[in-house]
Design brief:
about 700 residues; mainly alpha; 2 domains; secondary active sulfate transmembrane transporter activity; STAS_dom_sf; transmembrane helix; membrane
Length: about 700
């Protein structure tokens, strides 16, 4: 006989007050610990092993910096902003994460999916403000001014309607929207950290994230096709952007720029070949080949000296100003316009960063603090938003490169930031003649990993059909509707799948494994022996209001007996029998004799006297679940069939006690509840 332990009741009010008093107290030691927790660099930097770590950190920092520059310029196309803002973003994100991050390896900065989500909001707001989304305007003069827009594209537009009491051009308004969106996303992340809402990431399963990334990759690919072939089509907005864009592409395919098509074909061949060779021989290479940088340098030189913009009308990046633009506070009224859009951006940014941090922390045997990661990513968005930057996140591809080139700490992030700073201060104007089709090629080739997920669909389907369905639904919604709605659809559909699986779980009748005290599913295993006069029913899910009816239907179907119908039928025959007996007729209404009627009242299908319910898979019961068990206990008792519960966990037992299943004094509990199926079966056999 097992006896439950008596747990001492904890006064939660006192515990909460104690924690509150402790958190409100301030001592020098506590202040020091708070600063060290908030800025983890203060803990690990004094212990930095210079001789052991410096070479790997410098090498990985230089390589990532070299990769960052072309990617930053390319991803500016996704965000609908000028390349200078992408460089700002890459610089500030690396510095802030160095100070506040707890992961030693992740590379935080510009990320394609985040850039796409920012770009969609920027485009929508530009369209609502009356700007033309055509991005082939003449380049700015390079003097650092952000208001040198052409008349046809963004004539000085009075934006007092949205809270900006000054005339502002298209570029100025676009970065204003991006910084307001970024600031709000950072605020959400910091608030989530303060209130410890990191559990939100649990609702983004691997299938949802993979489907979202693949669907967004298709959207990114579609948005870059017009740059690949050099056609001018309007930037589609709203739901169904992917389909509308492809329709416009095929309508205008005859206007393709031959120079851009040839350049794109050459760049894609070179980039893909280099990537494939790099993947094949990565164990022999000390660091990855800087293919993107080589392609950009060569393409810029060819474009400049071949005058591809002037002769063939090939679209180029234009002037990128050097130095830093004076900081500016994001507009409050713009924040209100994009507050809702910032929420999915904040969640996606945080989830990608934390998941990558945890993955590499596990790989290299150290720990991270998810809550601090939320603060780090939040401030990587809040602070840079004052310096004309947009939202950031950790990126898998660059993180893999960091680890493969010997990264040991976030010192490598500082080195990468210095490389970006060098470009910002001196080298940015050199990219004036860089063709946009080259940038589009870099973006498309960087999507290889996400697009390769299509090859994994058969293996994923073989492993788990429901997860595959979640992946397909999320991917289709992200690509065909919009990225934000796709993410929401994926989360909701994933949760619905869980609910449906608990609503219609597996049910089985169990048989005994010969010469053992173990029982398993009759339909799944051979050579199981049935227990005479005993039915053993297993229900593989929590029993609650949503699956109550399925529980009863399955029980009645597998035992081949509905106690309610059987009881009603017996009452009906008993009533008819009494009526005929009063009349003195020894033959009943159906023409049978009394003895025959008595035999008929004991149905042949009732071939058991005890029902054992295996509760090992029932994790909890709600009020409906308790009432359901009480109902079957009563119904089967009317047919002289005892109901025995086996393998209940403590929370289920407590629910049954509170619901009055065992009676007021629990006197019959030992005859109704058993800690193993075999004990219940032995008890049922001993019953007369």
């Amino acid at each position: 006989l097992m006896e439950r332990k008596t747990h001492v009741k904890v006064n939660r009010k006192e515990v909460m007050l104690s924690k509150f008093r402790k958190s409100c107290s301030c001592t020098p030691q506590k202040l020091k610990n708070f600063l060290m927790d908030f800025f983890p660099v203060l803990r690990w930097l004094p212990k930095y092993r210079c001789k052991e770590y410096i070479w790997g950190d410098v090498m990985s920092g230089l390589v990532i910096g070299i990769i960052l520059v072309p990617q930053a310029i390319a991803y500016s196309l996704l965000a609908g902003l000028k390349p200078i803002y992408s460089l700002y973003t890459s610089f500030f994100a690396n510095i802030i994460y160095f100070l506040m991050g707890t992961s030693r390896h992740v590379s935080v900065g510009i990320f394609s999916l985040i850039s796409l989500m920012v770009g969609q909001v920027v485009d929508r707001e530009l369209l609502l403000a009356g700007f033309d989304l055509n991005d082939d305007a003449p380049a700015a003069s390079g003097d650092g001014s952000l208001q040198n827009d052409n008349l046809s594209n963004s004539t000085a537009f009075n934006l007092t309607i949205v809270g900006i009491n000054a005339e502002c051009g298209k570029e100025c308004y676009a970065i204003g929207i991006a910084t307001a969106l970024t600031f709000m996303a950072g605020v959400y992340q910091v608030l989530m950290g303060i209130f410890r809402l990191g559990f939100v990431s649990m609702y983004l399963s691997e299938s949802v994230l993979d489907g979202f990334a693949t669907g967004a990759s298709l959207t990114i690919l579609t948005a870059q096709v017009k740059y690949l072939i050099g056609i001018k089509i309007p930037r589609s907005q709203g739901h169904g952007m992917l389909v509308i864009t492809w329709i416009n592409i095929f309508r205008n395919i005859s206007q393709a720029n031959l120079c851009d098509v040839i350049t794109s074909a050459i760049c894609i061949v070179v980039l893909v070949t280099a990537k494939e060779l790099g993947d094949r021989y990565k164990h022999k290479l000390k660091f990855p080949l800087p293919t993107e940088l080589v392609v950009i340098v060569v393409a810029t030189l060819v474009s400049h000296y071949g005058k591809l913009n002037e002769v063939y009308a090939s679209s180029v990046s234009g002037a990128i100003p050097t130095g830093f633009i004076p900081p500016k506070v994001p507009e409050f009224n713009l924040m209100l316009r994009v507050a809702l859009d910032a929420l999915p951006l904040a969640i996606v940014s945080f989830v990608f960063t934390v998941s990558l941090s945890e993955m590499f922390a596990k790989k290299y045997a150290y720990t991270i603090r998810a809550n601090q990661e939320m603060f780090a990513v939040g401030f990587c968005n809040i602070i840079p938003s004052f310096f004309h930057s947009f939202a950031t996140s950790a990126a898998l591809a660059k993180t893999l490169v960091k680890t493969s080139t010997g990264c040991q700490t976030q010192i490598s992030g500082v080195i990468s930031a210095m490389v970006v700073l060098l470009v910002l201060l001196f080298l940015a104007p050199l990219f004036y003649s860089l063709q946009k089709c080259v940038l589009a090629c870099i973006i498309i080739v960087s999507l290889r990993g996400a697009l390769r997920k299509f090859r994994d669909v058969p293996a994923r389907y073989h492993m788990n059909k429901v997860d595959t369905l979640v992946w397909v639904v999320t991917m289709c919604a992200s690509a065909l509707i919009s990225t934000e709605i796709g993410l929401l659809v994926g989360i909701v559909f994933s949760m619905l799948c869980i609910i449906v699986r608990t609503q219609r779980p597996r049910t089985a009748l169990l048989g005994q494994i010969q010469d053992t005290s173990f029982y398993e599913d009759d339909l799944e295993y051979e050579n199981l022996s049935t227990v005479p006069k005993v039915k053993i029913f297993r229900f593989e899910a929590p029993l609650y209001y949503a699956n109550r009816n399925y529980f009863l239907r399955s029980l009645y179907r597998l035992t081949n007996l509905d106690p309610n119908l059987e009881a009603a039928r017996r009452k009906k025959y008993e009533k008819k029998e009494k009526q005929h007996m009063k009349k003195g007729n020894h033959r009943t209404a159906n023409g049978l004799g009394i003895r025959e009627t008595t035999l008929q009242l004991v149905p042949k299908q009732i071939d058991f006297q005890a029902l054992v319910v295996d509760c090992s898979s029932i994790s909890f019961l709600d009020t409906t679940g308790v009432n359901t068990l009480k109902e079957i206990l009563k119904d089967y008792k009317n047919l002289n069939i005892s109901v025995l519960l086996a393998c209940c966990n403590p929370s289920v037992i407590d629910s049954l006690k509170r619901g009055g299943y065992f009676g007021k004094d629990f006197g019959c509990m030992q005859e109704m509840l058993f800690y193993s199926i075999h004990n219940a079966v032995l008890f049922a056999k001993d019953q007369k």
